[in-house]
Fold CDP-diacylglycerol--glycerol-3-phosphate 3-phosphatidyltransferase.
Amino acid sequence: MSKSTIRQDIVNIPNLLTLFRIALIPVVCWLIYDGTPISCLWAFFFFWVASVTDWLDGYIARKQNLVSITGKFLDPLADKLLVMASLIMLVGLGRVPGWIVILLLSREITITSLRALASSEGMVIAAGEGGKMKTALQMVGLIGLLVHFTYEVNWGFISAKVNFHILGLWLIIVSLFFSIGSAVDYFRGFASALDSRTSNV
């Protein structure tokens, strides 16, 4: 891809939203590090804004036919950076066990490397439903961990005290199973694509 093509891709609205999401990462990390109840709520707010841009950039790209190679690279990268940076900061505060983050980070590095290898060989391996569920659980779980404290939540006639830390931690633990399962599925897809390519040679 030429430099001019990359430049044109970057200045389209979906990719600008993705870059904005990346720019929010240090803001979220600083607020997590501060650790006060107000900072936690602000961290939740900016993380939520970043999550909304993730949906919005994809919607605009499809609606306006602005899907680009640069966007296909930047969008998942922004998601991984946002989630992993937030989790690493939360480990420092003792809100998430380090071993969970190590497993999740190892999975992301392995699958990203495998995806890059598949792409270099001209193989396209679609993301499965497990991977999408993993991402959704991590996003919602992180929101719970960012809010962290116990708040009274009112649902019309019902009100209850919700421990957002416990809720978020359990969602992250559940996402770990989907993370491992989707990684196994991706390895199977890679092996199948490799076998098909070998048999066609």
